TrEMBL record:
The keyword DNA-binding does not apply. The lineage of its organism: Bacteria, Pseudomonadati, Pseudomonadota, Alphaproteobacteria, Rhodobacterales. This is Putative N-acetyltransferase YjcF. It comes from Jannaschia seosinensis. It is an enzyme of class 2 (transferase). GO terms for molecular function: acyltransferase activity, transferring groups other than amino-acyl groups.
Length: 145
């Protein structure tokens, strides 16, 4: 059997949404029970998509919705096999550096409450009350770039 190999630690912008949507479907729809209709919200075309790969293929994704000088980071998803490896944090750091280089001054996101600690370690600060998004408690967070 021929095994497809991928370069390690690759983080890139992507226009082909096949891998990002597959990751998001596995994480949000299959694992967390979000409906496919809520996950595929019609906003992907207005966003910039990022993908992280390891030596076995795509492992993490996110999308960014530009909002003036603020970048709204959305749909951050890491496959179960890559959680705890630092790939999600590496993706976030890479994207935030790229956003700063492009002139964005602030990043914001709606974090699942269970992931707030992850984002705090990346410099985000929680703001406002907890709210429901797709049946999952979330809280807004921001960070200067």
């Amino acid at each position: 059997m021929i095994m497809k190999t991928y370069p390690q630690n690759v983080i890139e912008r992507v226009e082909d949404l096949t891998a990002p949507l597959a990751i998001r479907t596995e994480v949000f729809v299959e694992e967390q029970g979000v409906s496919l209709a809520e996950e595929i919200d019609g906003q992907d075309g207005a966003c910039v998509h990022w993908l992280a790969r390891d030596d076995r293929g795509p492992v993490a994704t996110l999308r960014v919705a530009p909002m003036g000088t603020t970048a709204k980071i959305q749909r951050v998803a890491v496959l179960r096999r890559a959680r705890g490896t630092g790939r999600g944090a590496a993706l976030m750091r890479h994207v935030m550096a790229a956003l700063a280089a492009e002139g964005f001054v602030r990043a914001k996101l709606g974090a699942q409450v269970d992931a707030i600690g992850f984002y705090e370690r990346l410099g985000f600060v929680a703001q406002g009350p907890v709210y429901d998004d797709a049946g999952i408690p979330h809280r807004d967070m921001t960070r200067d770039l």
